[in-house]
Amino acid sequence: MSGSEDDFLETLQQCFGYRLGQLTLTAPRRAFPVSLIRADRMQSGRAVIIGNAVHQLHPVAGQGFNLGLRDVVQLADMLLKQHGQGEDIGSATFLNDYVKTREQDHRQTITFTDTLVKLFSNDSLALAAARNIGLAALDHVPAAKTILSRHAMGLAQRLPNFGNRPQRDN
Question: Residue 161 domain-assigned?
């Protein structure tokens, strides 16, 4: 943001190339600092908010996107069950239950991404050495890399099964 628009465009063009031709600005540049933001609550009345509407995470390995997908899958699973039992899908009890089922995943993912950002944005030499040792260990211990990857993708927990739902007569 401190450089001129011409310098910005030149750097952007060098990075992106000419696949779309000569780049131009259509509006003034703006900065949107990335920071951790979380809604005060996920449920109000007969509505819930999910995905990026409830949280803005640091863009670390798509974790905000993955967390949002897990929100959608969990809500869909619970909605199918609730509807299949002929129950109100907008009841406060049902929506509060949904929020409670998502709390641990939200907390763990937010803590994970926030810790990674702090770990990798810190200039401490001791921390850099520890970070490098940890990354090297992941390269040499495939099981640890697999476990970390499964957690990052949300595959370390039970996933909803959408098959064989009881059908309700309409």
Answer: no
pLDDT tens for 19-54 read 889 999 999 898 877 778 889 999 999 999 998 888
Tell whether 8 and 50 lie within a shared domain: no
Same domain, 20 and 55: no
Mind spelling out the 3-state secondary structure of the chain?
CCCCHHHHHHHHHHHHCCCCCCCCCCCCCCCCCCCCEECCCCEECCEECCHHHCEECCCCCCHHHHHHHHHHHHHHHHHHHHHHCCCCCCCHHHHHHHHHHHHHHHHHHHHHHHHHHHHHCCCCHHHHHHHHHHHHHHHHCHHHHHHHHHHHHCCCCCCCCCCCCCCCCC
